[in-house]
Amino acid sequence: MAECSFNFNIESSSAEIINNVKTKIENEGGSFTGDDNEGNFNLPTPVGTIEGNYSVSDNELNIDITKKPMMLPCSMIESELKKHLK
Question: What is the pLDDT of residues 54-72, one digit of tens each?
Fold first, then answer.
């Protein structure tokens, strides 16, 4: 069950968005597996690891955070995601 779920409208191609997200996650020491339609990721943070999965459907990116540090609120994760998806 997801601890946090987010939906974002995407205006560019899903391939472009996913490639950008993959690059950012890997550059920050995380791992990313998947394709333009769905996949999984994890990202280390100073307070613990964030794990989740994503899917793309009809110009919408759906992200489910399946594991996160207790001290890290969903609102902070959403805010960071918005910054990286612009």
Answer: 999 988 999 999 999 999 9
Interval 10-22: pLDDT, tens: 888 888 889 988 9
CA 53 – CA 66 distance, rounded (Å): 7
Nearest to 10 by CA among 78, 80, 57: 57
* Predicted TM-score (pTM) of this structure: 0.89
62 is written with which tokens?
């759906």
